[in-house]
Amino acid sequence: MVDVPLGSTGVVAAPDVEDVELYHPHSWVTKYVFSQDAKIIAIQYSFVALSVGLIALVLSWLMRLQLGFPGVFSFIDANAYYQFITMHGMMMVVYVLTALFLGGFGNYLIPLMIGARDMVFPYVNMLSFWIYLLAVLILVASFFVPGGPTGAGWTLYPPQAITTGTPGGQEWGIILMLVSLMVFIIGFTMGGLNYVVTVLQARARGMTLMRMPLTVWGIFTASFMALLAFPALFVGAVMMLFDRTLGTSFFMPAMVEMGQPLDRNGGSPLLFQHLFWFFGHPEVYIVALPAFGIVSDLISTHARRNIFGYRMMVWALLAIGALSFIVWAHHMYVSGMNPYFGFFFATTTLIIAVPTAIKVYNWILTLWRGDIHLTVPMLFALAFIVTFVNGGLTGLFLGNVVVDVPLSDTMFVVAHFHMVMGVAPILVIFGAIYHWYPKVTGRMLNDGLGKLHFWVTFLGAYAIFFPMHYLGLIGIPRRYHDIADMAFVPPSAHTLNAFITIVALIVGAAQLVFVFNLFWSLRYGRVAGGNPWRATTLEWQTPETPPPHGNWGKDLPVVYRWAYDYSVPGADQDFLPQNQPGLTRAIPEPGHG
Amino acid sequence: MAVALILVLVALGSVVFHLVSPWWWTPIASNWHYIDNTIIITFWITGAVFVAVILFMAYCVYRFRHQAGRQAHYEPENKRLEWWLTIVTGVGVAAMLAPGLFVWQQFITVPDDATDIEIFGQQWQWSFRLPGPDGQLATSDTRLISPDNPLGLNRDDPNSQDDVVVEGGELHLPVNRPVKALLRSPDVLHNFYVPEFRAKMDLVPGQISYIWFTPTRTGTFEILCAELCGVGHPQMRGKVVVQEESEYQAWLQDQVSTSFARLTPGTKSETAMSD
Prior knowledge:
The structure holds two protein chains of two kinds. By secondary structure, chain A is mainly alpha-helical. Chain A has helices at 28-33, 38-68, 78-114, 122-141, 173-201, 214-245, 269-302, 310-323, 341-351, 353-367, 376-399, 401-407, 411-441, 447-474, 491-524, and strands at residues 4-6, 10-12, 256-257, 260-261. Chain A contains 15 helices and four strands. In chain A, the strands form two sheets. A two-stranded antiparallel ribbon of chain A has the order 1-2. In chain A, strands 3-4 form a two-stranded antiparallel ribbon. Chain A starts with a strand and ends in a 69-residue tail after the last helix. Chain B has five helices and ten strands. Chain B has a five-stranded mixed beta sheet. In chain B, strands 4-10-9-6-7 form a five-stranded mixed beta sheet. In chain B, strand 1 (115-122) and strand 2 (125-130) form a beta hairpin.
């Protein structure tokens, strides 16, 4: 093949490797069940993750019922309550958010957005999904074993997690949790390597790194981070499993249990916390960075304006990714670790606020002088900014070591992380589903139902979590299933708890509207066409919608411009697809200017 | 229009909620009013940023909403603006971090005249140990714990003779005297938390952690466990009673005689020990 001329700035290099033939399925089973097509795998991942999300939603209802109306529901005792919060937390963080952003959106969008036919290792990609499903089944199985699931809290701190005073500690619950996590990490590693290698090796001609849509940058960076962070959780899980089943003492010091001395000695509970948070903090950004990337593209597309400061956005993503590996102990300010660590981790934590703030500024500056279409994806993007800014700012309280002391382990923390890594990324997930559903199915989601879903979810979630900070400010600790007899808690706090519960039930119910919309529009939605949002990125330029196996038909696309040529002066339409040659611009695109 | 208005209401509503909310921290009873002040500073800075960002966004949504004939402005970058915003943010962050680190230095630097006390948390109750007249706490070891020696004191340590052990009862402290609380757990993680003192710290089995504070107000305050420690976690409560010096001394004398009685040969516990 020959080089392709590229405007005034150069040429698109000839491909390094020739287009290779894909694996072609021949039966219904290899096409839709044991599929090696990233798009099918993406749908499988998303379906399972959203199903787990519904289980986690029901668990949150149960715990809110207990907090709002303590004692009314006799089946929710302390035991059950701890099991609910543990399973809710672990499911949401790992099995829903991580799986959905990387396994779901990653699989669907990476090959399409970079102009590839599929992931580079399709068979491993298929295995990744089935191993993930196995991990989910092991996790869900813990509801049905003697003693039920673990109630150790999603952080699984030993020694408590593996002792008799904790639900599932000396029964099956904790074992299944640890095994499930290990299986998940094995499956994720297969997927994660795939995402990283695909982005690095399979980009279309002309798709330089600095022309990639920010969605790809976000998912790519998060996958890379996950490959570095999950092993810490993996070894922690293996060690704890040994402590639980083989009687080792990795995390177990000399201790007594219910008055009886245990035959353990020399282990360190703090070691587990370091391993857990070395995974756990990057994990926050593993969820956040894909959301950052996706929301950038939603805002740019629906405001018809180039993303502002693209290069700064890329570098900010990378800076956040790198810094997030040296902030983990801000979860441990009051853990009893050497207090001098506090100076270091408070400083790194507050430094990370700077690249994060830059991203927020650039989203808003993209709206500035835009042509804002208030579509459902755009509404979700705006709501993301509100909740993310709110949750990010309360992070400045908790990151600033001494301010964390009174607030740590209180409802303030619960409110903070739900706002910043629960509500905000989930709003992006919704926005993204409304945005890409037409590409996946060929039909639009219903707009009216979408707006109903949006307003109830956004305003409801804000009404749940904003006031919750103030419960923490009073001093109400988290992980208490009943706060009835605390002298310092005013009666009005109980009213607030009941209010939060009622709103939580309503917001939960609104998700049924969304689920209905997903199925209803599959059949009755307006036919979308190939590019309903008039977007520039490659996935909207496929010859067919939904894209078939192999994505591009006979010829792979060639990329001539960055992903954000919206409203280019002199162009005859307000967007220029990345694979459209020609047209010089008044202002050169960044990275080539 | 409606969307912009709702965004404005969310921003302003949050501020109004903050100002009229009846949910605020408990009146402070320790020297850590610096912490409260730092929180107030942080509230002001972050609140101002939140309102500014959301209002600006609402303005954009209103001003640049789609209308026939509108075309967005094409401007990939503006280096000057981006650097200015970065610098201003950096300064704002430093303005919060600096006082935070300053107060943290105080938080972890125990004054020389602080009295050592021990706070012992186990599933699911609080116990306490005071040093007695010699001012020294005896060494201890989890492996020495027995029904007769619930805190695992090292009886060979001469300092153990006058240590005052308060098992499952109230901790009494004299007002306006700094204490260094040594935190110890024989089983799982716990966290010593008194909302009115603002201070909290984990108890970690296998090591001894500490916090220090000066009670500044007499009264009875609730001790909570703030680190999940099993199903009994919410029931793990205790009380700390802050008293005037004279009342405290009277209480201490009472405890010393009780403790001493327990160690006198021929008592029930002595019999148990010889078993």
